[in-house]
Specification:
Blueprint (H helix, E strand, L loop, with lengths): L2 E3 H4 L1 H6 L2 E5 L8 E10 L8 E8 L8 E6 L3 H8 L5 H4 L1 E4 L9 H12 L4 H17 L15
Antiparallel strand pairs: 1-3, 2-3, 3-4, 4-5, 5-6
Bound molecules: zinc ion.
Length: 153
């Protein structure tokens, strides 16, 4: 499966709405401005309803501090999708991506991400970005037009 950053197709809305957090004075994470870059799968036929985020830090460009999976659907949804009960546990909720780049701070960043999911509608925002990405991909229109809202089911 291939993943593409949301910001590479929708830079305006992507950067404006990318979750960022300033860390200062924590023992378990170096000070800095962290951002959670969203990536979605580019398979037109796939409706996996998940996001991969790369935790980045402003002062260390290009370095991935953590790779986090987040699936917002139920376990039953992923079981029917993948036709197998194996691996499904990893798809539900947030977890570190086994094949992704991680740093020694990955677990802390995962906890931070999980905490953010509970506030200010971040989970809904990720789902909305997924819909925008998928609608643009499947709708034959050019993958431009940032800010276009998805059609609601
Ligand atoms: Zn997919």
């Amino acid at each position: 499966m291939f993943y593409e950053p949301f910001v590479s197709r929708f830079p305006d809305i992507g950067y404006a709405e990318m979750r960022a957090v300033r860390i200062n004075g924590r023992r378990d994470l170096p000070d800095g401005n962290y951002g959670f870059l969203e990536l979605f799968c580019t398979d037109r036929t796939c409706d996996c309803r998940r996001v991969i985020t790369h935790a980045l830090e402003e002062g260390t460009a290009g370095e991935v501090w953590a790779t986090i999976n987040y699936g917002w659907e139920t376990k039953a949804f992923y079981e029917s999708w993948y036709r197998s009960k194996q691996d499904v546990v990893e798809l539900v909720g947030a977890s570190l991506e086994p094949l992704g780049k991680q740093s020694r701070y990955a677990q802390t960043l995962l906890q931070l991400f999980e905490h953010m999911l509970g506030e200010r509608g971040y989970a809904k925002r990720l789902q909305r970005h997924y819909e925008i990405f998928k609608v643009a991909q499947n709708g034959n229109q050019p993958a431009q037009g940032s800010g276009k809202r998805p059609t609601r089911k």
